[in-house]
Description:
By secondary structure, this protein is an alpha/beta fold. It contains 10 helices and 14 strands. It has helices at residues 29-39, 54-65, 128-139, 153-156, 159-172, 180-186, 192-200, 241-255, 264-268, 272-290; strands spanning 4-7, 11-16, 22-27, 44-47, 68-70, 82-87, 93-98, 115-119, 144-148, 175-179, 206-210, 216-220, 225-228, 312-314. Helix 3 links the parallel strand 8 (115-119) and strand 9. The radius of gyration is 18 Å and the shape is globular. The relative contact order is 0.14.
Amino acid sequence: MDRALVIGEALVDVVVRADGTADRRPGGSPANVAVGLARLGRAVDLLTWIGDDADGAAVRDHVTASGVRLVAGSDGAARTSVATARLGPTGAATYAFDLAWDLPDPTPSPTPPLVVHTGSIATLLPPGADAVGRELLQHRATSTLTYDPNLRPSIVGPVGPARRTVERLVAVCDVVKVSDEDLAWLLPDDDPADVATRWASTGPGLVVVTLGAAGAFAVTAAGIQVHMATPQVTVADTVGAGDSFMAGLVDGLWSADLLGADRRDTLRNAPEATLGQILARCTQIAAITVTRPGADPPTAAELPSRQFDTFVADSRV
């Protein structure tokens, strides 16, 4: 069976609501993507760094309950990392982190993954960030590489070095998903559409920019541009919305037979109609996620079976 490999942090989110109440939930951007993919019916391995402690057990139970398989050695950390998410009156979250990030040396799988995803803290925080970069390069000959910067300015350091790292990873990956908030910090003087077009000319076959309530747009290396509106829903909070979108993106490309190193040229020339259907499903997945507390992506059974053409706002950015 084709499998996905997700590389990156898994941690515990302490979600503090506007009224001061709080709870603890397993999370971490790459772990959320792994869970989202598994709930959509995909076989997923997660290479991460958690401790043999109560928080680590909570993370393990959470991801395995959704069908994610932890790569051996992923529980070798001295402690499990914690992220505190404080929710404002609208449900938007701001984050503070207590992190320990490294990467175990995994035993190579006899069958390469179809797709390798990474992003967020794991790609920028030493000492594990360098190991993540090496893992990506080792899989490039056989697998589609996907990347979501999902930046946390409070912990990634000055914007200049972060920008250089992000753009280096963009150049080696096949699919990049980035939020308009990330771009506003990373490249504040540039229009997001211009950044996406520029990035799509440097290596990726597909660059997707999410715009929160305004939807998302995609740009391919061949120059196709597609814009998608977001379904209107009542927001509980935004925790995990981008991660569930990312899982939906990988899943949609998987269903469209656009994953794998041998499909790189086909991905770069993906037709507009296919991209529109994929983006529509991604926005639906993210919309469901924000209607419930925490990073709780939907299963495939929770998604409407109909096509989402009604959510197309504009076929051009």
